[in-house]
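Reviewer 2 asked us to include a model.

Predict the structure of this chain.
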Amino acid sequence: MIILLFSFFVDYAAFPYRGRVYRTEIYYQIPYHELIYRNVGDELVSRYQVIFEIKGSDLLLADTLTKKAVIRSFRQAKERDLSFVDQHNYILLPGEYQYQVTIICSTKVEARGGKIHLAPIDREHLTISDLELAIKAEADTAQTPFTKFGLVVVPNPSSRFGGRWRVIFPYFELYNLKPDGSYYRATFEILDSTNRSIKILHKKAEKLFSAQNEVIGIDLAGLKAGSYTLKVTVYDSTKGEKVSRSRPFQIVGGKGIRVSGRYDELIKVLLGTREYERYRKMDLVKRKAYIDKFKRSDLFQNYQRRVSYANEHFQAGTKAGWKTDRGRIYIKYGPPDETVSKTFEEKLKPIQHWVYYASGLHFIFMDLYGDGDYRLVWSNSKDDPGFPDWDRYLPEWVIEEY
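Predicted model (structure tokens):
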């Protein structure tokens, strides 16, 4: 039998537990294409074994688990850049350990691992756990392998972001806080490969318990592909103590992570640049709440109605109505106060003239190619001008008439 090797990723994070031991989480991540599948009905199913091993000076722990991975099709898995992520937890005393994760799938086998250093636990001063870099973190009471303290935190053992994963969620825990109702401050800083600070976020949280967890979503939009470090610093002014943790990560993909998103652009167009900039400075949790509120607003509901109307009335051939010039103007400014359609006996194409009395705006559209797609030839709007050579299509007397 030929034994084939394959690639996957492993990582770990350790969290002090009850003041004397560590809850140590071992993670692994397998890209979908590394597994071997067989057809089961309408699905592709892969079954594999995962062997976890922890070795210390006088300790040997081993667990073997059988897992199943399911995809609908290779095409869909490729489009989603699918990986299978899981974790297994151990309670360990402070000390030095070796961990190893072995995965066996049919004729493929490979092992990955590394060292674990668990320092003696400080029970007096402000202490911070390891920093876990996650691809998802949200409140959920469901019991999953990734649930801790009411949060589902999905790890990213590869530490690679980009593509689907344009937001990084650093998760950590704090210990030996004095729950007096005062606040601690957390600073989240992204450093590039030259150790230059390129992005900083601040968060203030009330001290309600002696041990608390913290997570924040950081949008990586605008960062180019390359190597980075995420540094977290927490300052407790009551004790005058400061702790920090750092973790390297990568952004992959030739173009890095671009600013995109349907609601980002809508907020900019409908609410203006100033409000858009305020929105962009929010952390991910606040941005999600902002978008939820925005989607319930009369402004957004009105926008949806305008898009539907544009698609119904301004479609030209296979071109969706909202993509046409009339659709774009209608969505932005709403229905015109007056619409004048004219067909000329001379060698002029049919036109539509839209008038908005309150703003004094005029838009003249022309069916240049006889396909029903009226182009915006002329307007008196600085934001939405017509053709710079509009006089090639319209004689001045047409404009003067309006």
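Residues 298-313 form the longest helix (16 residues). The chain has a mean pLDDT of 87. We have added this to the supplementary material.
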